[in-house]
Amino acid sequence: MTNAEFKKELEQRTKRFAVDLVNWLDTLPERRAVNVLVYQLAKSGTSIGGNYREANRAESKNDFSHKIGIVEKESNETVYWFEILLESRLLSAEQKETGKPSYTEAVELLKLFSSISRSSRSH
Fold this sequence. Notes:
This protein is mainly α. It has four helices and no strands. Helix 1 (about 5-25) runs antiparallel to helix 2 (about 30-55) and helix 2 (about 30-55) runs antiparallel to helix 3 (about 60-85). The chain is elongated, with a radius of gyration of 15 Å.
């Protein structure tokens, strides 16, 4: 796989993640505390793909490194908000279970973008 193919596939993957995430979030109950967490998770989770696309259009290696660092931070924040929701008593066991695939993907994306970020700073 070429670098360009990898970037394109990762852009598609982050978009699929965002769509799956917002579709899951839309199934959650309307409660004050849930709404706050849903808002935070929706913002950070959809931001991953948007910022990754922006990083791929960076004007220099330093610009890419900076922007990919933002993607890593958004990924980390997404995992955090997911953990709050999944560890709270706000959701039913079934709701938590249906969110686990997206949580697993969020963790995988965090690992991937952490690796890319480290690599971009060392070059």
